[in-house]
């Protein structure tokens, strides 16, 4: 059964315009979303992908009313700026590109169930295009409100990483394998100590706990897939 990237490719084939803007069915774009994304996309030559800001929508303002999953979503999830600046891709929940770029580098890899946005963004960057962040091109994404939802996502992402390796799309370094096996101690330490995240100590500890739980879930999911389990969609 085809995955979401196959569906995106079908949408691309039917689209009529020269600019392609992507979001998810559960996201709500800001009124200036398209204008801001287009502005950054056309700001300089050779911009191949633009990733817009993804704001997490929460049911409550105060942390005391949020559960552990919602705390994690609030402070850790959807770091689109980090994706763009350090990993050279944009999550398709808020991504812009052009038809000419797609004609140059190709569509999404339809074989993938997860990780296709990472693979596409890296392919665009390798072809010599820029990947840029558009802070004011905002969409709002509802927070996952339960650990089961986050665990399912962790399993899906782990399966996507295994498929990238199996298809010889991504070559893992020693550092990648170490990060797969060793708990995210450095990130946990930074979350505990950094002043950049304006979160109460209780919220930081909850986020760190969920972060490490998801790491364990993903680790065992990779082992299960290598032992014959089918990756999740």
What does this structure look like?
The chain is α+β, with helices and mostly antiparallel strands and 233 residues long. The protein has one domain (4-226): Spore Coat Polysaccharide Biosynthesis Protein SpsA, Chain A, CATH 3.90.550. It has 10 helices and 5 strands. The chain has a 5-stranded mixed β-sheet with strand order 1-4-3-5-2. α3 crosses α10 (201-226).
Report the sheet with the most strands, covering strand number, pairing sense and barrel closure.
5 strands, mixed
**What's the arrangement of strands in the largest beta sheet?**
1-4-3-5-2
Order of helices and strands: HEEHEHHEHHEHHHH
> In the CATH scheme, what's the topology name?
Spore Coat Polysaccharide Biosynthesis Protein SpsA, Chain A
Provide the CATH top-level class.
Alpha Beta
* Helix count from the secondary structure assignment: 10
Mean pLDDT: 88
**Spatial shape:** globular
Kindly name the structural category. Answer: alpha+beta
Radius of gyration, CA atoms, in whole angstroms: 18 Å
Low-confidence spans: none
CATH A-level architecture: Alpha-Beta Complex
Strand content: 15-25%
List the SSEs and their pairings.
Elements: H1 4-14, E1 19-23, E2 28-29, H2 33-41, E3 47-57, H3 68-75, H4 80-87, E4 94-98, H5 99-105, H6 116-126, E5 130-142, H7 147-166, H8 174-181, H9 185-193, H10 201-226
Parallel strand pairs: 3-5
Antiparallel strand pairs: 1-4, 2-5, 3-4
Helix pairs in contact: 3-10, 7-10
